[in-house]
Amino acid sequence: MRAWRAAIHQEPELSNEEVRTRAKIVDALTGLGLRPTTYPGFNGVSAALALDRSGPTVALRADLDALPVTEETGLPFASRFPGRMHACGHDVHMAALLGAAAVLKRNESRLRGPVKLLFQPAEEDGIDGGAAPFIARGALERPHVDFVVGQHLAGGIPLGVVGWAKGPMMGAADHFIIRVRGRGGHAGYPHRTVDAVVVAAEVITGLQALVSRLTDPTDPVVISVGMVHGGTRHNVLPDTVDLEGTVRTVRPATRATTEKALRRRVRHIAASLGARATVKFLRGYPVLVNDPTATDIVVRALTEELGGDRMVELEAPVMGAEDFSLYLEKRPGTFLFLGVDPPGHTSSLHSARFAPDESALVHGAAVLCAAVEGLQRG
Amino acid sequence: MRAWRAAIHQEPELSNEEVRTRAKIVDALTGLGLRPTTYPGFNGVSAALALDRSGPTVALRADLDALPVTEETGLPFASRFPGRMHACGHDVHMAALLGAAAVLKRNESRLRGPVKLLFQPAEEDGIDGGAAPFIARGALERPHVDFVVGQHLAGGIPLGVVGWAKGPMMGAADHFIIRVRGRGGHAGYPHRTVDAVVVAAEVITGLQALVSRLTDPTDPVVISVGMVHGGTRHNVLPDTVDLEGTVRTVRPATRATTEKALRRRVRHIAASLGARATVKFLRGYPVLVNDPTATDIVVRALTEELGGDRMVELEAPVMGAEDFSLYLEKRPGTFLFLGVDPPGHTSSLHSARFAPDESALVHGAAVLCAAVEGLQRG
Amino acid sequence: MRAWRAAIHQEPELSNEEVRTRAKIVDALTGLGLRPTTYPGFNGVSAALALDRSGPTVALRADLDALPVTEETGLPFASRFPGRMHACGHDVHMAALLGAAAVLKRNESRLRGPVKLLFQPAEEDGIDGGAAPFIARGALERPHVDFVVGQHLAGGIPLGVVGWAKGPMMGAADHFIIRVRGRGGHAGYPHRTVDAVVVAAEVITGLQALVSRLTDPTDPVVISVGMVHGGTRHNVLPDTVDLEGTVRTVRPATRATTEKALRRRVRHIAASLGARATVKFLRGYPVLVNDPTATDIVVRALTEELGGDRMVELEAPVMGAEDFSLYLEKRPGTFLFLGVDPPGHTSSLHSARFAPDESALVHGAAVLCAAVEGLQRG
Amino acid sequence: MRAWRAAIHQEPELSNEEVRTRAKIVDALTGLGLRPTTYPGFNGVSAALALDRSGPTVALRADLDALPVTEETGLPFASRFPGRMHACGHDVHMAALLGAAAVLKRNESRLRGPVKLLFQPAEEDGIDGGAAPFIARGALERPHVDFVVGQHLAGGIPLGVVGWAKGPMMGAADHFIIRVRGRGGHAGYPHRTVDAVVVAAEVITGLQALVSRLTDPTDPVVISVGMVHGGTRHNVLPDTVDLEGTVRTVRPATRATTEKALRRRVRHIAASLGARATVKFLRGYPVLVNDPTATDIVVRALTEELGGDRMVELEAPVMGAEDFSLYLEKRPGTFLFLGVDPPGHTSSLHSARFAPDESALVHGAAVLCAAVEGLQRG
């Protein structure tokens, strides 16, 4: 698993560009004696085991894509490409699923039902993720999938511990794009311009009060601006400044009111200085809801396998979104968090310095195998 | 002049890249029967007339470089290069100086003293402008220059009118570079990050009160942020956000206190959210101070030539900076503004839509010739 | 109950000034045939029933004080005193407890154990509330109290419905007092002053990001500024501006980190403009935690009495604080919310226009009687 | 003069309440052998000398009212009244005018023309000042006044030096009153309120950019908020917050555009969070314009009397307003600044610690006498 993971980690690819990654997955699965399926114009890979068994089919899913982050871990197998990094742990997800595939293949004769392996591209896209086209291409059929299981590395949970939840587990993630339109000009004559930089700054600051004042404090909402870009020269005020960010919510009504409040806020702040602003609000993945019954079964199986001290129920939904939610809209199943925090430290996914301990690989593979065992046993 | 100007305008070049522009100037001067001087590793061009006369030598200066602005004028001779534009009118300055050169050459026998033509690169650089290296390469010698005259297009003054001032006319322009350092991470978990985007926004907003509260309202100060850049993905908070901007002042003491206040403001705003910020403060061109006697002579000559209704004394210094100030630190002389406002409209230099009326060419050439006449007559 | 409530409502008294209110309570209890106990230097009133029974003793608590709000309800029995109003519903709590007392007194022979009635002053004080001194004066002894029950009107819950929760139900409420110290002076010469008004505004705005950026979105935190006062004349900048507000949290660790972040934020924002700020952070009531077993018993009894559709479990703790939490630190028991929302409307407690439907009186009395019945039955 | 000043200083009175102050003036003038005129319903006092002379009549004006500031000077004759202080130096103006009256009376026979003494109330009012009603009551008639002279203590000018200006000397001062209307409620439930405190803070911060971004940096504009008041309890969000402040400008067009920009800014900032705001904009005293000819005469006379090193021409208009501007709209004359800065220190008028050196008394009296001498000599 280490070798797979290092090879994948070293050559990260962004959403819908996972060509080399796909090739590595295909090679690895073939090497395990499986016959992977690929798809024209789509970077997903699937494979199946124990197709002849009559028990329930369990699909295990990993995600392929990396983030546009320049790695600063100093690892020997660090990304060779500036501006691309497996900072979200998908390399570990893939290697763990390959590891699980190896174990399951070795023990194929003991499986009660078929297992389907799903290597999905473009999870990070956020809007047009890979889950929907994968499902459209039959990911949950041939054989008909009865349960879906996925997992993700997680900060905030100790290394080696599994986090689980019944019901809502991850929020909805929407993507907003704001263009502030002022009127550019010489930076020494601000009164002859409409300063889009100052307006953009007021917009960013102004978004904070939407969370602190307009939202029920017990109803989680996140509004983050990940990108702010404007201007090409220090002494020329630009015509426009562009902001992009994300809104996370766990209730549909709050999702709607937050969008509405954000639009009103942005429009009026711009108008207050004579500028204008356009807001595009792209709805992303829906809330991820774990099936209670399937979750109970998986948690029981994992508790047997790992011990109760290695299992933790989440106190609250987390604000990251996942298009695994789309599989869960079609089939019962559960999503699990693999803790990666070393003692006394909280890991920060998406950071340029994210470097989870390698023991997560073995752990992740074991979790998937135990989940299959549990769900097929019933 | 129109043809020169259109040719230059169509192929704008940024500071210290004025290679084609230099070639066009050299060709034009040669075509006028002059013998231009060029310099290795420096894009300036000079030429001299009437070297055998005993009267005072007057140097006339134009500037060569363009701005990194994408032109939106729709002119037939608009810039062919996205991201480069003569949005500051240097094309007109060059063409007017070439026009003046043609007139002076035609009337060379009537000149009382030598005239030196200075085509200077990199005026827009702001810090390492072309004036200092031009002077170092002998711009004010061979023959020894007695007076310097320059001009610049100006909004806020009617087309065809000349703006002048005795004493301080243009402010000092300093360049600041701020890097806000937070701690990046997943945009859905802001509490695990230090949000450099929010801090940068607070810094931009915070700079406003330095002008409105810390500055004597009768002592002009401008603080503008021309560039704000941070983040590569909407759902990842970046580690850093970069700001660049300009500070304009007309008093040395205010220049110093403003730098100090800006440093304190930025540092503490960052610290208030647990971030850090570094501030580089690059001192740019000094205050441009016109020599009173030389200005009186030039104004008298222009008033004779153009009529008193075409001359206007500036009420206050303007906040744009010019490295013509460096010539004026070495030699007496004056800098003039050529109005370009059509009736009922204020032109905005540095804007992507800046398109001055072509009559400014004739006007600019006439102003330079009259200034020479006046200064050589005394 | 209506008459009691109207009489109390008309003459609201602020925390620790509840002298007339106390007299009304004493009169009413006496009129019911009870022998109320009063306390020197403390406005609480207690009374007991069925002291000879051997079953568990249940204490029922109501609160006496009003808010410094000027009533705008237009009710016939509206407050006679500008700047004082029962905008928090304590008038209803008192009348309902008196109503319950009447019912219990009438049926005293059927009670299984004693009942203690606690009319507590100064619940609104927030820091030095009446619960602690009431307990110190024996509120939970003579007879020894086994269970405590309290209730509060609540917006966000339909009229006639009871809200309940096991475990944490209401947050901790701390009180902060910030004095921004600038340097006053003539408002026309801001550069000779340090503008405490602008700094105070930046502090208020700056507090928003503590919630939106520094706090786990699933961990409820509220920071509100209820008072801002500075300046005595429009054209004189004051030396100081005073802010007061509240911090609400539901986790002790968050309470501590929020205080720390607030202190850092305020100090640096002030320093960024050359001002200073002092922060007093007064720890208020702790988190209110309902005993699970006692809550189960009460919920079961209320469900029998009212029907299941009149009971609703709270999804999340609410951010208002209550010194009933102090009784719950000493004795098992539960706190209940009495819904007052008419169809299609959310009531806003603490507002000048808060006017709950009178049916809440009957409802409140019934809830208390049923809770006693349940807890004494076991 | 010291005794007069100390007596007046000790009992300061606010605008239009100057009853004791008037009595002291009347007593002092009577004691000098003059016959002061008082006015029913108006606290002004006037007196005249040398009514039989044929030369031009010069009116000298002092102002009577104090500021609502609590004195912190520790002077032996400090204000006896908290919340009232001669922090603007009007006590010195009065004592200096009384001193001048004593000198002029002693030398009455040498005066070339009449002198009129004007002790005017309510200069600090800013909107409904005392100058207009004083003029309406004949301040500039009986005898007909030919020239008006006034003076004011000034920081920024060394002690003993007189500041003067031809043309515009002091700005227009307008008074704005903003009421931010949100919707009050419980501070623990911000989402059920519209937080007027946060909106008011954003308005205050937002006003800064009107100066820093919308105003020509060479055209002085001041916007200061002197008062911010909202809320009566730390844990209740108020319905409204009130702001009051001042706008200072020196050009009529800027006065109009600033009002317009302020109204737009405030309205949209409020709307961006769902609040409303009303803006009252009260036009105050106009620009104070000194008559060039009269100023030349006075400056010449003062230069003779004091020496050229004790006279300084102001570089720029100051932003404080004065209703002496209204006398100057009716009659030629000049307004003078009496420097009070000790070496190495800038005095801050309107501050609670303002304590000018007593030598300003003699200086002020001498300036007035010399101005009379100069203007009557012509």
Classification by helices and strands of chain A? alpha/beta
* Percentage of residues in strands of chain A: 25-35%
Supply the CATH superfamily name of the largest domain in chain A. Zn peptidases
Share in helix of chain A: 25-40%
**Count of individual domains of chain A:** 2
CATH topology-level fold name of the largest domain in chain A: Aminopeptidase
* Assembly context of the chains: homotetramer
Distance between the termini of chain A: 29 Å
Poorly predicted runs of chain A: none
Overall radius of gyration of chain A: 23 Å
N-to-C SSE string of chain A, H for helix and E for strand:
HHEEEHEHEEEEEHEEEHEEHEHEH
Q: Tell me, what's the shape of chain A? A: elongated
Largest interface: A-B, 65 and 65 residues
Number of strands of chain A: 16
Mean pLDDT rating of chain A: 95
Figure out the total of helices of chain A.
9
Per-chain topology:
Four copies of one chain form a homotetramer.
Chain A: H1 2-10, H2 19-31, E1 37-39, E2 42-49, E3 58-63, H3 90-106, E4 115-120, H4 131-136, E5 147-158, E6 162-164, E7 167-170, E8 172-181, E9 185-186, H5 196-212, E10 221-230, E11 236-237, E12 240-249, H6 252-272, E13 276-282, E14 288-290, H7 292-306, E15 311-313, H8 324-330, E16 333-341, H9 359-377
Parallel strand pairs in A: 3-4, 3-5, 5-16, 6-15
Antiparallel strand pairs in A: 1-2, 2-4, 6-16, 7-14, 8-12, 8-13, 9-11, 10-12
